[in-house]
Specification:
β1 and β2 form a beta hairpin. The protein is about 45% helix and about 5% strand. By secondary structure, the protein is mainly alpha-helical. The protein starts with a helix and ends in an 8-residue tail after the last helix. The protein has a two-stranded antiparallel sheet with strand order 1-2. The chain binds zinc ion (ZN).
């Protein structure tokens, strides 16, 4: 029943957006929402603990504090141009792309919060990479 209602609701929303697009020339782009509420719009760190409540977001890695809805919206806006993530990308694969991008940003930065990352189960496949960052490096 939930699936039926969900599909029915999505069809109504799509039809409405399509009519707005035709009527006003508004560009409509679908983006993959997976982990958008757990990803930091500042540094890209993904952690369940980043989301304090429905309104509060505090990044465990960089300390950024922002309204949780605003944070998610910023992530969704950026995602339309992220390589490797489309509307049909499976959730698990979205997480892999986000982790890979975050780790790529950490290269060459001495402020990587390694202990936080090592405790995060999302980063468990990246232990070797994190161990390689264990000594302070120059930010590039
Ligand atoms: Zn952050």
């Amino acid at each position: 029943m939930n699936r039926l209602l969900s599909r029915f609701g999505k069809r109504i929303v799509r039809e409405k957006l399509k009519s707005l697009q035709e009527l006003y020339g508004i560009e409509v782009i679908e983006t993959n929402p997976a982990y958008s509420s757990q990803e930091c719009s500042g540094c890209g760190y993904v952690d369940k603990k980043n989301r304090k409540s429905t309104q509060e977001f505090e990044c465990q890695a960089c300390g950024k504090r922002v309204n949780a809805q605003v944070n998610s919206a910023q992530n969704l806006l950026r995602r339309r141009s992220v390589e490797g993530i489309t509307i049909r990308t499976p959730k698990k694969q979205v997480l892999e792309v986000l982790i890979e991008r975050h780790l790529e940003r950490l290269k060459g930065c001495h402020s990587a919060p390694l202990e936080v990352l090592k405790e995060n189960p999302y980063y468990s496949d990246s232990r070797d990479f994190l161990d390689g960052l264990s000594k302070p490096l120059e930010c590039g």
